[in-house]
């Protein structure tokens, strides 16, 4: 069997399986985090413009997070994925350099809502989307990430898997959905090394691609089933001819969905270890910030390449600037959503500190990437003192996870940024008791506007 067929065989087997308590807990966490991110990002400039541009399609039956307008299943998937990715708050599978939630859950939710699926059917679809896509992302990286945005590429495949589950595709149809989603995989790194709005659109394209390829497969549209491993296929063209056996080795045995990184900073994940390190040192520096002469950051090559903008002037660029996020963390004590308001970005004290941040590659740290995300910080003061801290993992990684309480606090902060707090609390209560929620409409009614 081809890889697409083997993934399809695994997926269809999940219909007959009951979710374990560990799986159910992991799925509740990723769904909670996705909803918080999508609610927070629902009014982002790129999301508002995209909604308006798609409204010309006319009304249909599927809605958006935080919106009563209804356009259609593909538009709902696309817009909710863009919203979830817009503020750089969404989850990560670190070994795959991949944000699975934005495209996978957006696609699953759109199809589930349109088909009247149960909560459990939604959760199983999300599980399958995560388990297949995280394995593909892992075997093609880190080489793939040099030029490609994994969320835009592999996100298409994960979204197709989730959508195909909810459409109740048979095994053959499921495999064809994956095959056609793969050939439309796209998203270039250059798009988010500037102030462009394109990066979250990659997640939107992936969710949309997953939905329409699954819908088409359900109607008999076929794809090249060896598109992943073929001589001119995805792996050869975009993944450095990976060892695909690794993608299948523990499929169905190890739950990757339980090993997700949840962000606690609203910026590029490549900065997190360094941000965590300076926050550890900050209590010793509160009376000495003006005496900082130099901040040396030792990190991996990918982090250096992606966060090199030393003087960003807008929120999009600031989220990918090591200099800005470290200076802001030192002065304000956090790098949350408010860190990317114009007042914070233009804070004179922060701007004065930014040129003192110097980033370089550490060979040992680089060699452990992407499985381990470490950083070392050395801060030199004008009085001769030198403060150092080595951060072995990011807070939020599986090795140092956010607790349920910390994840719930993140959800409330994210959701309450765009909802009355009582509605955010009501949503949280439903998520805590997800097994008792009668249907998706009941889960989502607290976040619908109108």
UniProtKB/TrEMBL annotation:
<feature type="domain" description="MmgE/PrpD C-terminal">
    <location>
        <begin position="265"/>
        <end position="424"/>
    </location>
</feature>
<comment type="similarity">
    <text>Belongs to the PrpD family.</text>
</comment>
<feature type="domain" description="MmgE/PrpD N-terminal">
    <location>
        <begin position="5"/>
        <end position="246"/>
    </location>
</feature>
<dbReference type="GO" id="GO:0016829">
    <property type="term" value="F:lyase activity"/>
</dbReference>
<dbReference type="InterPro" id="IPR045337">
    <property type="entry name" value="MmgE_PrpD_C"/>
</dbReference>
<dbReference type="InterPro" id="IPR036148">
    <property type="entry name" value="MmgE/PrpD_sf"/>
</dbReference>
<dbReference type="InterPro" id="IPR045336">
    <property type="entry name" value="MmgE_PrpD_N"/>
</dbReference>
<dbReference type="Pfam" id="PF19305">
    <property type="entry name" value="MmgE_PrpD_C"/>
</dbReference>
<dbReference type="InterPro" id="IPR042188">
    <property type="entry name" value="MmgE/PrpD_sf_2"/>
</dbReference>
<dbReference type="InterPro" id="IPR005656">
    <property type="entry name" value="MmgE_PrpD"/>
</dbReference>
<dbReference type="Pfam" id="PF03972">
    <property type="entry name" value="MmgE_PrpD_N"/>
</dbReference>
<dbReference type="InterPro" id="IPR042183">
    <property type="entry name" value="MmgE/PrpD_sf_1"/>
</dbReference>
<protein>
    <recommendedName>
        <fullName>2-methylcitrate dehydratase</fullName>
    </recommendedName>
</protein>
